[in-house]
Amino acid sequence: MTDEKKRAFNLADLGDLKIGQIQTYLASNEVDPVYVQALREDSRKGVQNALLRYDKALLKQQAILDQIEQLKTRENELRQQGYQLIAGVDEVGRGPLAGPVVTSAVILPSDMPPVYFNDSKQLSHTKRQALVADIEKYAIAKTIGIQTAEDIDQSNILIATKQAMMSALNQLHPAPDYVLIDAVHLNDYKKAPQEAIIKGDATVYAIAAASIYAKEYRDNLMAEYADLYPGYGFEANAGYGTKQHLDGLKKYGPSPIHRKTFAPVKNYL
C-alpha cells in the first residue's frame, strides 16, 4: 500500500479514535499536518480542546526557535565574515564569599541542533543538567578555567576572573578563531580577535552555553565542599552570603576556601 493510500485509509478511521488516542498522537513527534487538518473537522469537544493545546505547543516551540535564532545573531554575522570556530566565554562566582571563580569557554558547531541556551541564573539545576548534557554531546570544544579563593586573595577578583578565562581559552582544542566574552576584555589574549559583550550570557548563544557549563561545574564543586566544610550551607548557597552562610561564619569562622579579603569574611579572621 502506498503512503497516500495508507494516509487515506487512516483518515477514514480518525472518527473512530478515542479522545485519549488523539491526545497521545498530537503529543507525539510524528504528527502529519494532513491528519491535523482532518481532525479540525471533528466536532467533538475533546478533540477541539486537544487541538488547542497542540496549537499552543506549536506557538511556544516556534517562539523558542525564534529566540535561539536571535541568540545566534552575532555568531551568524561572524560566520558570514569567514570565522568558524567561535568561542563563547563566561564566568561564574565573582560575588560569593567562598569558593573559586570558575570560567568556561565553549565552541559550538554552526549546525548545532536548536537547543535553547539562556542565562544560567534563570534556569533550574535540572534544566542546566540537561543543557550540560547537550553541550557535552554537541560542542566542538569546551573547557573550564579556575582560580581558587587563595588566588583571588593574592590578586583581586577581576584579575583572577581574567586569569581563569585565559586558562579556559588556552585549553581549547581546536583553538578559536574568534572569541566572544561576557563583559570582559582580555588584554593578554592575542591568539584570536575578541569582543566583550555586555549581558552576553543573555544575548549570545555560545556565551550562554559557557555560562551554563561554568555554573553547573561550580555548583557541583561547592556541593562537594559542603561535605568537607559543613555548617555554611555551601550546597544551597554556592558560597554566596546568605543568612545560613553568615551564621556559619559567625559560629565556625572562615574555612580554607573562604576569600579572606572579602567582607565580611575578613571580620572573622
UniProtKB/TrEMBL annotation:
It is an enzyme of class 3 (hydrolase). A divalent metal cation binds at D90, E91, D182. Its cofactor is Mn(2+); Mg(2+). Its main location: cytoplasm. It holds the Pfam family RNase_HII. It catalyses: Endonucleolytic cleavage to 5'-phosphomonoester. One of its GO terms (molecular function) is RNA-DNA hybrid ribonuclease activity. Keywords: Cytoplasm, Endonuclease, Hydrolase, Manganese, Metal-binding, Nuclease. The lineage of its organism: Bacteria, Bacillati, Bacillota, Bacilli, Lactobacillales. Belongs to the RNase HII family. SUPFAM superfamilies: Ribonuclease H-like (SSF53098). It comes from Aerococcus viridans (strain ATCC 11563 / DSM 20340 / CCUG 4311 / JCM 20461 / NBRC 12219 / NCTC 8251 / M1). This is Ribonuclease HII. It comes from the Bacteria.
